[in-house]
Design a protein that fits this description.
Length: 256
């Protein structure tokens, strides 16, 4: 069995794989202040609900964009299991050519998503991950990871708007029925939602222009289904793209 963990700024997603089949996944809040023991209680509690313990696993693969948490997770699995977890970084085997200025500075989540999308669909690709931050990445037909953009996520944008403008309330993120809002809340809904749809569409258009060809657009992340309702430029929404990428990277780096 394989345990994979995607450590994001807002949430940690953990999943259990038996071969290529995902058995179960969980999502819980990322907390930089939790100790190794607290994370152990959390992880073992989820596993126990499925009748599993850490002793059932032969490997653990972790993608993390929150470096302060990594030492605690490393110690947890190194102490409880008989192996060190595999952390995703630019030095591992990916099957992609990282055509960027500093491969070691490339976020683990972006590598993982690119590996999963290219393995499933081939290239060229535009990969959008809509989480705490939104990333848009390009992969060529021959498997060159070409780079991309990083911008504030939808949740950050909503929080910044309400916290920086004294008269604007906090709002839920929902698709508005029209662009022209008749009151403050409707106007905020329209500005946030259609503004973000426009941002995504603009980057897709610009990427395709720079690639000088059409490309399959694959989206993942918590906000992908919501934004996907407002655009026809996203071809596929893949909620488990990062988890699948972690499984594939395990196979590439620990072949049976």
């Amino acid at each position: 069995m394989l345990l994979v963990m995607d450590v994001g700024n807002s949430n940690i997603v953990m999943a259990v794989y038996q071969g290529a089949n995902m058995i179960k996944s969980w999502r819980f809040t990322t907390d930089r202040n939790k100790t190794e023991d607290e994370y152990r209680v959390k992880v073992e509690g989820f596993l126990a609900d499925e009748g599993l313990t850490l002793a059932n696993f032969k490997d653990v693969v972790i993608s993390s964009v929150v470096p302060p948490i990594n030492p605690s997770l490393d110690r947890l699995f190194s102490r409880v299991c008989s192996f060190k977890p595999l952390f995703i970084n630019a030095g591992i085997k990916t099957g992609l050519n990282l055509k960027v200025d500093d491969p070691r500075g490339l976020g683990a989540d972006r590598i993982v998503n690119a590996v999963a999308a290219y393995d499933r669909f081939g290239g060229p690709l535009i990969i959008i991950d809509m989480g705490t931050a939104t990333t848009v990445c390009a992969v060529s037909a021959k498997g060159d990871y070409l780079g991309g953009v990083i911008c504030p996520g939808l949740g950050i944008s909503v929080e910044a708007l309400s916290s920086s403008a004294a008269k604007l309330p906090r709002i839920d993120i929902v698709p508005p029925v029209r662009a022209i809002g008749k009151n403050t809340v409707d106007s905020m809904h329209s500005g946030i939602y259609f503004g973000y749809v426009g941002l995504v569409d603009s980057f897709i258009t610009r990427f395709k222009r720079e690639l000088k060809q059409d490309a399959l657009v694959v989206a993942t992340g918590g906000f992908a289904p919501l934004i996907g309702k407002g655009t026809e430029m996203i071809d596929r929404i893949e909620p488990n793209l990062t988890l699948e990428g972690l499984r594939l990277l395990h196979e590439k780096n620990h072949p049976r």
